[in-house]
Amino acid sequence: MPKATNLIGAYNNFVVEPLKTEEEFRDFYVERPKRTPSPIEELKDRIENAESAKKYIFLGFRGCGKSTELNRLSRLIDKEHFIIVSYSIREELDVSDFDFRDFFASMALKIYETAEKEVDLETDIEEDFREFMMHITKVSEEDVTRYSETGISFSKLILLKLGREAKTWEYVRKELETKISDLIEKLNWLILEVESKSTKRIVVIVDDLDKLARGEQAENFFYKNYGLLIQPNCFVIYTFPIPLAFNPYYENVRHAFDVDIILPHFPVRDGEKRINEENFSFFKGIVGKRMDLGLIEEEALKDAILSTGKISEFISVMKDATIKAYRNERTKITQEEVGKALEKLRRTYDRTLTEAHKKRLLEIYEKKEARDENTSDSTSRDLLFSLTAVEYEDEEGWWCDINPLLMPLVEKWKQAD
Amino acid sequence: MEASGLEDLEEIDTIIAELEISQGKGNVILCVVNSPAYREKIIQVLQRRFSTNVISVETGEQIIRTLKEQDFKSVDVLIWIMPEEPTEDLLNTLNNFRELFYDAKIPNLVFYNQAFSEEVIRKAPDFWRYRGNYYELKEAERGMAFEALETLATPFSYQDKEDLLRRKRINEYLLERVRDKEEKADILLELGVIFYYSGDLDKALEYYEKALELNDELGMKEGIAAVFGNIGAVYFTKGELDKALQYFEKALKLNEELGNKKGMANQLGNMGVLYFTKGELDKASGSYKKALKIFEESGIKEGIATLLGNIGALYFTKGEPDKALEYLRRILGLHDEFGSKESLAKNFENIGVVYSAKGELNKALEYYEKALKIFEEMGSRIETAKTKVNIGDIFAQKGDKERALEYYREAKDLAAGSYVFEFVSKRIKELKE
Question: Which residue from B14, B18, B129 is facing A16, i.e. has the nearest CB?
Fold first, then answer.
């Protein structure tokens, strides 16, 4: 992915997907600002120097680069001494409807999948595990044989059924009602077997757990069962739904884990509206890695950065402005195109906000903090979750504001208020 | 419609450019279109350019299977048509399997309606965040009815094409006979207007230039101002908006010098329409409100009604239908005083369009029917046809194909010889398909 020298190349380089491959990291990754660095280096050090298998929770708002940073962690950890089992829960289970039982079944299968590749498993351990999994999912030996002939492995077959068949969830949940400790025991046997034979330690990274669709589901998973989440005898990094961190239970749960790591948003302006040059440069760097900076007017770039200030949204706006400039047969992106892209997005957000949302956003704008009135009020939480309000970290500590994109609407909302 | 047509055309052209340069790569382009018929028209345009695979989506499982199991080697673009109602299953699938769209390695164009779009933003935020781009096309919302509001302020009216041709013949005849230069200047201006309405813009411009020359020679500033405004309207229609703006500004300046309030308000109204077309809604709002103020101060009721309508349209475009209704309803209050049946009917129709966009179909129908009654009483064929198309659209949206066709057919019979004929014929064809 060479740096773009024309608008077509630039359009194709503004991709919103997390960085994954070596090439993508080499060409597109920009170091986070020094004052709010990525916590991944520290997490890597923690893992590599830990004496026992720790559990971590990893938090960050939508679009702040979590998956990219987790992909980076997978790349940074010393492979001589560690085996990485990294997966997205969304790829394995139905995120809108899974619970801790399906989750542990899927984690065991992911570890088994890796174990098969890394070591020759003891027959007893392997058979015991397979029989147990077949029993709780009601998968027969014939099924396994039939599918293996078509190239679908044991773990893949059961994961497919677990992710897609309501019937299989029902079996698993019923069986594991009383046998969850059996499953965790077998999971730990697998871990021990792999770690002792390979002389490497297992690090499991579970991405997208923060995407649990329903609030109640997320609370049940993390708050009612957090005791189970710390039982696997390997390193585990759980992504954690940020709205849950605004819940009073969070304090209790947080201590059960070894450390909670937060990937912050960083503001391009401070609370006094002064431009934070270092953070500004970070966003400029994202563009500079993807295209020749001569392809955009300086003022246009400034508008895009100051009006968005979070990575995925910024990239989207740049992509939109790029196609507009291309269509206008320009040689570079101008303020007009950036302005149109911003306005389009602003109008869309404005339309989706209710009067209660707007009122709360005005409060956040005035007070620079986002609090709900009581436990049954979730307005601020919803706003933070949808990123119409943003929580920042800088030299001033933690503070909140409305999404910079919405700033031009403040006066209008005030008049309507 | 002119304005919304132009705006959409630009957007569709951008979609094509975007699909073109994403060839062979994963991409997700979201496109909000409310009217199925309009969506089909867009798809047809795209199909002339790209080889497509069009998928009418019913379930989440269908999306997953299509993306995981199909081979898209001979396809340039995947077009997804989401159903009218966003189900939880679909929103979850979009949110949780968003990567599959990129894994397909070809661009995906996803069509859905406004309500679906808002649910995606709220309930499938990860999918929304993964978009390559998104578009909101307006045609279905603004419909044919808003055409009336965007007609530039030219003091001229005609019944149909025949009427226009007759007036052309008369003016050409007079031009040869009249010796009075002032009279001649007026005829030249009117001929320009006739060619403008006939769609022959170059010819219109030719006559306006002649009129300008003559007015200039005679030192008739009022005439010059009128011609400037009309030349602006020609450039506006040609899509040369900057040039159009220059002429509207010249006309405004002259009218200001002359203290011609009505002329000033007309030009400000034109400038408003121009900014509106350019999407510069705040500037449009500024011009409209200045024009409205002048009309109000001068007590020109018809002007007030037009401007209230334009401001209503502006709020409607800004996605503030309630505010739009507020302005449109004010026109109803004015109506008893100046009593143009036609504008009352057009206003009823516009209120119907707003309700239709809000999804309040019965309310929309109620207003369309009020408009229809007046247009029928007036014997205004084209307007009656247009209203019938709007009513047909409501029945089509309600799924009552037969009644929709009934209205479309009636509209078609009435619309012979006008552009509505072609429009409604397409509607009938699409509905039958």
Answer: B129
